[in-house]
Amino acid sequence: MTQEDNTDQLVVRVDDVRKEYGDTAALDGVSLRIRAGEAVAVMGPSGCGKSTLLNMVAGLDRPTAGTVTVEGEDLGKLSETGLAMYRRRRIGMIFQFFNLLDDLPALDNVALAAQLAGASARTARKQALELLDGLGVAHRANAYPATLSGGERQRVAVARALMNRPALLLADEPTGALDSRSGEQVMDLLTDLHRSGQTLLIVTHDPHLATRCANRLVEMADGRVVRERILERAA
What we know:
alpha/beta; 4-stranded antiparallel beta sheet; about 25% strand
């Protein structure tokens, strides 16, 4: 598997990761490679370990054993402060339920991500407006999350995730809380991001989302990777 081990192109390297919660192993010897520009979908039944795997790559949890390396950085060697900076500067995250701040308008929700990473308020707001415009929701920049549709909220969340030009975009059930029309719009957006060269790791229950937005499918069961295959239909 020399192509997968080309360290010049590897963005994510998960090696023999095990994660235990008490007597339960949520991950049991998982290894995964993601190269730059790939869109990888992870699927499997509830409790199979796919969200735990995403949390490991996001630096939100630490493995019991094994290593997680992103862009050559061993996450296990980072302090909690180091992990927080990693999440702010190196990755973007899209959640099922958006995780927007209800007391901030859309523009400030997006700009905050850059300000936390050290950008000035003026620079952050300018970049945030450009992203919202590119995602078709600039006209909702001053609207609060409660007044946005589900599709608009997820587009704002995607803008926030892209704010610091992350090497890796993580999506946890990104269409799970959306109606079918909004879900299709978000799938189109993820597909466009992949085509533009964005590296994606998507966790989903939805086979349509996986085959539409990813070029490789990883299937999990009982904390293990049981199958991987290339999705030929992806652009």
